């Protein structure tokens, strides 16, 4: 299958791996440049589009690093989906690739990049022509909101932006920055959303969007700073106001932040030592959050794909029974029935059935994705045992041949339980805290920061980071 990629390698844009390890400050410069480019693209609206105020994909925006009605409409969704599919195919040896051979690795990466670009193109077509997200397309000029030329232009903009994002991600992945491209974009998106929800000074219906400015303005108007006035309404509105960020969501986000940091400390230490030289035993840590937030990336990408195709099919075939089972959509562009309704954390109200089904979907989905990602991503017990063998490491008190069996007692359990815990936190916050208090973006942000610190520690850049910040 990968042989089909070879003819395109010559014309496919590619980022060259740096000849040497870049200094810390050079990586900082690249990271800042990438972040600025990302924020600019996330702020440029699609030319010719009539974006609606309704956004059925709002709950995936932070994790997918996407922004409604802008060049970043699709975000890292196609990149993550492509990575998942190729990782699964490679893990189950459906692709004939040897990762120890450089040519095979480059071919695999080129195929993943091409597939991500194709997914971007097809997602753009579905959103524009099938779901008609940016305006109705019709042969009747009295009904049509979007001309064919404008529709084609929007698809071209989304595809070009997707290619730029793929190349920016490749710059990060090739060692010019820290961590992974998708992780960096998601961390930037989560940080931006958090700042916007709590500090934005934009006014909507005479209220500040940001929860903290809204509280301060309410206190000022009610005369509390002059030791008078009634504050009960101000406090209640600040904590429970609808359709705008509130303080309850802020406090829940902070609680999730602290809880995730605490959960990152849970681990099982497996004692190991070198079989070559006599040395003291050290520990191989298996964390509770063994796969980090990857299960949320996978679940978000899966949900986003289901919603895109469900909405696209329903607009074209609203009376088809199978399409209605996949999802029914209201006039405001939000799911009102079917699978799409039950997997999106919107409009719970008092719908107990949706609460239960959404909780089951989130918890089971995170559990399965976390468990199977550990198996196909090179983190399975047999893969870790091979790394031990290559480095002449043995588990204390065990023979080298028993390493896979001993690791299998811990790693799958940690992956599954960690995924279930993450899913339970996300489901609880989505149901009882409102969409703005979704725990998923905050968990992703914390695990991404933790990964960055681990990378900096491994590369010996912690001291330089301290000097950069005057510490």
TrEMBL record:
Organism classification: Eukaryota, Fungi, Dikarya, Ascomycota, Saccharomycotina
GO biological process, one term: SRP-dependent cotranslational protein targeting to membrane, translocation
Record's protein name: YALI0D22594p
UniProtKB keywords: Membrane, Protein transport, Translocation, Transmembrane, Transmembrane helix, Transport
Species in which this protein is naturally found: Yarrowia lipolytica (strain CLIB 122 / E 150)
Statement: the UniProt record of this protein carries the keyword Transmembrane: yes
Residue ranges of domain Translocon Sec61/SecY plug in the record: 36-69
Membrane-crossing residue ranges in chain numbering: 28-49, 70-94, 114-134, 146-169, 175-196, 248-267, 288-309, 321-343, 355-374, 410-433
GO cellular component, one term: Ssh1 translocon complex
InterPro entries for this protein: SecY/SEC61-alpha, SecY_CS, SecY_dom_sf, Translocon_Sec61/SecY_plug_dom
């Amino acid at each position: 299958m990968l042989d089909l990629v070879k003819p395109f390698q010559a014309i496919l844009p590619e980022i060259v791996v740096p000849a040497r390890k870049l200094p810390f400050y050079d990586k900082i410069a690249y990271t800042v440049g990438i972040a600025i480019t990302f924020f600019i693209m996330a702020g440029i609206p699609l030319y010719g589009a009539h974006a609606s105020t309704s956004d059925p994909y709002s709950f995936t925006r932070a994790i997918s690093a996407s922004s409604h009605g802008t060049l970043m409409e699709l975000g890292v969704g196609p990149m993550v989906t492509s990575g998942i599919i190729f990782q699964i195919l490679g893990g189950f040896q459906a692709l004939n690739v040897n990762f120890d051979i450089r040519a095979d690795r480059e071919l695999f990466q080129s195929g993943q990049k091409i597939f991500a670009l194709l997914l971007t193109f097809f997602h753009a077509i579905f959103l524009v022509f099938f779901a008609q997200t940016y305006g109705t397309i019709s042969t009747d000029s009295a009904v049509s909101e979007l001309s064919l030329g404008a529709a084609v232009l929007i698809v071209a903009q989304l595809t070009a932006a997707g290619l730029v994002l793929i190349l920016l991600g490749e710059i990060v992945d090739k060692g010019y920055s820290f961590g992974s491209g998708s992780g960096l974009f998601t961390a930037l998106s989560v940080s931006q959303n958090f700042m916007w929800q709590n500090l934005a000074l934009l006014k909507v219906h005479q209220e500040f969007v940001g929860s903290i400015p809204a509280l301060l303005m309410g206190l000022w108007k009610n005369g509390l700073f002059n030791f008078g006035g009634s504050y009960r309404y101000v406090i209640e509105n600040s904590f429970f106001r609808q359709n705008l960020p509130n303080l309850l969501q802020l406090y829940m986000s902070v609680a999730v932040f602290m809880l995730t940091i605490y959960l990152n400390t849970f681990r099982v230490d497996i004692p190991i030592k070198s079989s070559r030289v006599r040395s003291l035993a050290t520990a191989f840590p298996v964390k509770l959050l063994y796969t980090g937030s990857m299960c949320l990336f996978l679940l978000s990408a899966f949900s986003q794909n289901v919603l895109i195709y469900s909405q696209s099919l329903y607009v074209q075939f609203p009376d088809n029974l199978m399409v209605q089972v996949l999802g029914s959509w209201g006039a405001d562009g939000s799911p009102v029935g079917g699978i799409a309704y039950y997997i999106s954390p919107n409009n719970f109200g008092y719908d107990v059935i949706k609460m239960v089904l959404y909780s089951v979907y989130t918890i089971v989905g995170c559990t399965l994705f976390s468990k199977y990602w550990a198996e196909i991503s090179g983190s399975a017990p047999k893969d870790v045992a091979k790394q031990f063998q290559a480095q002449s490491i043995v588990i204390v008190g065990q023979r080298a041949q028993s390493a896979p069996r001993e690791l299998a007692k811990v790693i799958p359990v940690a992956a599954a339980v960690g995924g279930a815990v993450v899913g339970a936190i996300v489901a609880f916050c989505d149901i009882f805290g409102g969409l703005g208090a979704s725990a998923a973006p905050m968990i992703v942000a914390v695990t991404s920061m933790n990964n960055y610190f681990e990378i900096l520690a491994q590369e010996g850049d912690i001291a330089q980071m301290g000097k950069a910040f005057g510490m």
